[in-house]
Amino acid sequence: MGLLTADYNMSVILAVALLVLTLTKSFMCTTTNGRLIECDKCKTTYLGEGGHWHEYKCDPIGGSFDVAISGFSNKVAWLVFCAFHIGKAVDKTGFGKRVSLALVKAMGRSALGLGYAVCLAELALAPFIPSNTARGGGIVYPIVESVIASLGVDPQGGESAVGGFLSLIGSSANLISSSLFVTGMAGNPLVASKAASIFGIEFGFTEWILGASMPALLSMFMLPPITHILLRPKLDFRQLTYSIHQQSHSLGSISKEEYRLCGTLLTCLTLWVGTSYFSIDATVVAYMAIVMLILLNVLSWDEVIKNHKAWDTFFWLASFIVLAEQLTALGVTNWIGNSLSRSLQGASPLLSTISLSLVYFFSMYLFSSISSHVVAFVGPFFTAGHVLGCPPMLLAILVALFSSMAGILTPFSTGSVAIYASQGYISQPKWFFYGLILSLALLIITFTVGLIWWKLLGWY
Known about the structure:
The chain is mainly alpha-helical.
């Protein structure tokens, strides 16, 4: 309720939550002999074996605070924190803009070509920039907007098929690319963490991209033609070539910092993809990248300190991880999951999996934040799937895909979508309609090609 209604930063709300839960001793503490109990039972007595009274030896407030700050040592939070700084380097050096402009220049000879250029720009940047808003709104959107202006569209002219076409592709490509990588969106690591804790499966960088690759890439491939059918834009390319040339010229030649950045990024991708061979955790790779970028003078330590978005996300993500873990430890997630599972009793595991994932997808209508949606529903839906005997990897990849893709449903689902929708090239009622059409297309792809792909992988 605080996230939905209060006029406070998300981190402030989480800080208050952790403080209240600490002072009220509402976490699960660990006693000196390793027993897990509610923190408010610390220093109370209980009747043990042989009729003897014993004391729960733990510190109720201190133990609660230990739990409250435990998320700040979580590898998932550190992975996202490091990825934010990598994204800062991509933005600072101009490498992200250079890649995007090169794609538009190479493919911008038709409406579909422009659409695919935007999609490829998002795909190229998604593994390294875990804020979909920073990636879509800070790097790709300005280029899309300049392309729209170059095509002779008046930004104050209201609805426009050309502006709407590129805006809808830009916002949708941002969400689809976010679903392809565990580092594509800040909430994704929460999905991976919950899948590991509830199902006991390995669902890291490699498993995520392997499972998501076929449906996500096919969805990205189909996005421009479907959007073109919906809006039928008529484009004038006379000014576009000149505008892209001017922007590319202003960037100058490739700098030494960009070469160093490219080397670091290639190293990261190699180690991430080859995790099983190199046996280096994905978080360690990301942490190594930050150290390399600093030593290579691509980033300065002052820039790391001043990257407030990274620190802010690190704080609220670590806090959310604690709350999610404690909901499970206290049995709340199981209770919600059991309640959900009762409505599907008697259904086959595959039908239960599809039903849960569809409810999860369309529940996005109730949220104005993808991260809030993930935090609220991933745990209960995974628990319900566990109770119903759903194939763990199948449910995990469906929820992983739908956590981002569901944002296509509304014009207010996340910051990047809101930026595109606020330009007014598509009216809000039409945005809902187009969002529903695109969502149905994504669901059809997921439950046809996706299910075949996951069957071949042996995930169900």
